[in-house]
Design a protein that fits this description.
heterodimer, A: mainly alpha, Serine Threonine Protein Phosphatase 5, Tetratricopeptide repeat, about 0% strand, globular, B: alpha/beta, Rossmann fold, 3-stranded mixed β-sheet, 12 strands, about 40% helix
Chain lengths: ~130, ~350
């Protein structure tokens, strides 16, 4: 049984990767409720992954909402920007998505696979 | 063959007003070289402000794709350190056609112009990322080249173009450096150690995705030491040679820990710098083996990631890098996007 926030966070991520999105979303919520003051500093990371789960579930508007929370909390983390941009693009908001992709590219670590993902997405936006 | 003294020798530095050039050019002048820079100065003229007006420095604003300009500018130069390019993957992908023209198509004519002008040695800044992603523990110069981006591909394609021009009087040498870190008057904050340091100082937090991915690093002052060494190293040791140049092959998580330690020591009033490690299952590692350059030339980097991060923290604290999170001048892709180069 998972009892601490790190364990439940990892388990939630494993569910996300396994495609068990509903379980993942519930467990991420549990993780946040275990640390409402955000003493671990994980809330924005959790919102980012929840946005990924919502996006994969087709809950696109909710994905944008929660990805926006992650970006608002940590505006300089390129991975969060990319999640928000993916969510916006899935909603057809290509120009907003483009600006977030470009912002993400500015400070992403060189060589990260996300660079190729963003470039491919920007290529589709044109 | 004895090595001529540097005094009076003129070095042509295309791209000399960039991140590395801004440190290299003053060092060349200090060593007694005459220097001629050709650069578009897209990032302004602050890069070489400290040596502006130096009697041995000539600065030419122009494009490396202008073959006539290059031919005229290189006249009278003995040595070349070629740094000019659109630098980093996203900036190259912004306009692949433009990037191909700057990073690859201009290179052959430039090399020929240098050779025709009587240049005796040509040092080319390639990239340690030409090898692509590799699981091998030691990526030596013999490792297959499998570039994963256009930036790396063009670097790879330039290498044989240069080596094909080798002759008794024209000595090419190629360096494949790791990711550079540290302070420069033309600062970049889109490089691994520099990004992490900026985030730690400005946000008091470093977010690491994955963390186990390896990234080789090299301090900017070591990079510059190496360029100076390559200008005067015995011809028989460098002619037609390719050298990796890296110091610390650290994981991103290790690098973040180093940066955290530096920032907490340098700026204790910031308190604890949080490192938040977020899981990632798409891990790509890059690492370089630099045994050859130590064996052949005795080159061994002297500075560490700690040094690079510390230099940057002090520059940030001294107000040398205002608006470090937002000013496009620190981020190549933002400046390239704003300039709309054609």
């Amino acid at each position: 049984m998972t009892t601490n926030i790190d364990q439940i966070y990892k388990a939630a991520y494993a569910c996300l990767k396994a495609g068990k999105y509903a379980d993942s979303l519930r467990m991420f919520d549990d993780a946040i409720s275990m640390d409402p003051a955000n003493s671990k500093g994980l809330h924005s990371e959790i919102w980012n992954f929840q946005a990924r789960a919502l996006l994969a579930s087709g809950r696109l508007v909710e994905a944008v909402e929660i990805a926006t929370k992650a970006v608002s909390a940590d505006p300089r983390v390129p991975e969060f920007r990319a999640t928000l941009a993916d969510s916006l693009m899935a909603n057809g908001e290509n120009q907003s998505a483009k600006s977030h992709y470009e912002e993400a590219l500015a400070s992403i670590l060189p060589g990260e696979p996300l660079v190729a993902h963003i470039e491919e997405a920007l290529g589709r936006i044109g | 063959m004895s090595t001529p003294p540097p005094a009076g020798r003129r070095v042509f530095v295309p791209g000399g007003a960039g991140y590395v050039g801004a440190v290299l050019v003053p060092r060349l002048l200090e060593a007694g070289y005459k220097v001629r820079v050709l650069d578009l100065y897209l990032y302004g003229d602050r890069a070489l402000a400290a040596v502006k007006g130096h009697p041995n420095l000539e600065q030419v604003k122009g494009d490396v794709r202008d073959t006539a300009l290059v031919a005229g500018t290189v006249r009278g130069c003995d040595l070349v350190i070629h740094l000019a390019c659109i630098s980093n993957d996203p900036s190259v992908e912004l306009d692949p056609h433009l990037s191909e023209s700057v990073n690859y198509l201009s290179f052959g004519p430039l090399v020929k112009a240098c050779k025709a002008a009587g240049v005796s040695r040509f040092v080319f800044a390639s990239s340690g990322s030409v090898y692509g992603v590799s699981d091998q523990p030691d990526v030596t110069e013999e490792h297959p080249l499998l570039p994963v981006s256009l930036y790396n591909k063009y670097k790879m394609m330039c290498e044989p173009v240069l080596l094909a021009e080798a002759s008794d009087s024209f000595v090419p040498v190629i360096v494949r450096p790791a990711t550079i870190c540290g302070y420069s008057p033309r600062q970049r904050l889109d490089l691994t150690v520099n990004i992490l340091t900026n985030h730690a100082v400005t946000n008091k937090k470093i977010t690491v995705f994955g963390g186990v991915q390896m990234r080789p690093n090299l301090h900017i002052d070591d990079m510059v030491d190496l360029y100076l060494l390559l200008l005067e190293a015995p011809t028989e040791k460098v002619a037609g040679q390719i050298f990796n140049a890296a110091y610390q092959n650290y994981t991103v998580a290790q690098t973040a820990e180093v940066v955290k330690g530096v920032v907490q020591k340098e700026v204790p009033e910031l308190g604890d710098i949080a490192i938040v490690t977020t899981p990632s299952d798409d891990i790509r590692s890059y690492h370089l083996n630099s045994a050859k350059i130590e064996r052949v030339l005795g080159f061994k980097p002297k500075r560490t990631i700690e040094d690079g991060s510390r230099d940057l923290v002090r520059a940030l604290r001294a107000g040398k890098l205002p608006n470090s999170m937002t000013d496009p001048v620190y981020y190549n892709i933002r400046t390239m996007k704003d300039n709309k180069l054609e």
